[in-house]
Amino acid sequence: xxxxxxxxxxxxxxxxxxxxxxxxxxxxxxxxxxxxxxxxxxxxxxxxxxxxxxxxxxxxxxxxxxxxxxxxxxxxxxxxxxxxxxxxxxxxxxxxxxxxxxxxxxxxxxxxxxxxxxxxxxxxxxxxxxxxxxxxxxxxxxxxxxxxxxxxxxxxxxxxxxxxxxxxxxxxxxxxxxxxxxxxxxxxxxxxxxxxxxxxxxxxxxxxxxxxxxxxxxxxxxxxxxxxxxxxxxxx
Length: 236
Hints:
Elements: H1 9-12, E1 30-35, E2 48-50, E3 55-62, E4 65-76, H2 81-84, E5 85-91, E6 99-102, H3 103-106, E7 117-118, E8 122-125, E9 130-133, E10 137-139, E11 142-149, E12 155-166, E13 179-180
Parallel strand pairs: 6-13
Antiparallel strand pairs: 1-12, 2-12, 3-11, 4-9, 4-10, 4-12, 5-6, 5-11, 7-8, 8-9
């Protein structure tokens, strides 16, 4: 039995957007997608391949707009491909990538592991084979997303979606999405490790932190410290 209840939202004022958002409200914008789809719409070769050292532009977008969803899956003989495939994103013609990270680490699969991840902005399913990103990534003029095969083996099949919404304009207070990768080997004992450095206005939204230990022990007795706007003593 299914029980249905009808509520006058205007009278009760209890309505709130759900986890699906408030998509019932009409907005300006057009849904778009860049993908590995076969250019022949009657064909079924919906994948790309990447030779060792080869880079591919998987999305070349003309804004303004917002990237809303990215999905990857692939097939290769390289076991540690999560650390050997580089993901770079460029906003508005900038020469320096705003996002630069190994593909696995960007999706919270550090150290070339293949494991499920269940979070709001990033999800990995199918035993570590399907990568989903829901971070909103605005672009005012353009966006270019590039993947590079930095392994010594061919990526036989590379599938992807880049979903985005093309808009007439973006609000003036819209911020860009950034992500940077850092690595230290070996990590020094009792030394501070810089997780992030940034300049300008914005929000820090999180870190994926992965470590391999030389011996079976717990390493996490250090504290996180946030130094904001040049302060000498951390405010967090």
